[in-house]
Amino acid sequence: MDNKVTAPTSEPSELNIGEDLKALVASGYDKVAAQYLVWAGPRPTTTRSTFIEKLSSNLSPGARILELGCGAGVPSTQDLVRRGFSVTGVDISSAQITLAHEHVLPLAGKGQHVEFLVGDMAAMEFDVGSFAAVLAFYALFHLPMDEQPVMLEKMVSWIKPGGYLLANLHAEEGDVHRPEWIGGVPMFSSGLGVEGIRKVLNDLVLEGKLEVLEDIVDHEKVGSFEEPFHWVYARKPCAINSQLS
């Protein structure tokens, strides 16, 4: 039997379906969670690794990190836990969270807090200023476009003064529906485009809520084509510079 996992190869099409988009995303990842892990786990994502290294150098051991759209936790959540951070992972797919328990929890050290929550990131509630960093890798673009600016503002509110935001988003503008993604399931994503996200960030900067440290577009090999991602690394202003716990 051929166990090879086929990467997503279908070209995106304009979204024209009446389904609940978040239910579509959750159902899609539930159905292909194991296949997605086989494909995505070993896929080189050097930009993400580089940013995690930068972030880690500014955080104290045991610092609380929130990772939205954590999936199965491979490799980013694993990396964060191995570095000694306390991590809360959130994903809309219960199947992905089941895999995260399997692949991440055994790595936690004695007294190290690691937990996973199933749910829509946009509906989550956390105390203001409760995390040293809030991260979202390959996840925010699964939200409808009108929810992405609100989500970014919520993420900033959950960060401690002096804490960090690290995320990537679609670099291109528009809603996209892939009728046949991994395993043949449909999948939805969307983007405000680079300039759209920069406007959101600029508004947060003007309000004194954020300092953008890096803002880049990087191309990654995804299946049979290259896809641009917009990476944002930012800091919540703080009068005192210190490592965060």
From TrEMBL:
Keyword Transferase assigned: yes
GO biological-process terms attached to the record: methylation
Species whose genome carries this gene: Cylindrobasidium torrendii FP15055 ss-10
Chaperone among keywords: no
Keyword annotations from UniProtKB, A to Z: Methyltransferase, Transferase
GO function terms (MF aspect): methyltransferase activity
Domain Methyltransferase, residue spans: 65-163
Gene3D superfamilies (UniProt xref): Vaccinia Virus protein VP39
Protein's name in the database: S-adenosyl-L-methionine-dependent methyltransferase
Source superkingdom: Eukaryota
Pfam families with a match to the protein in the record: Methyltransf_25
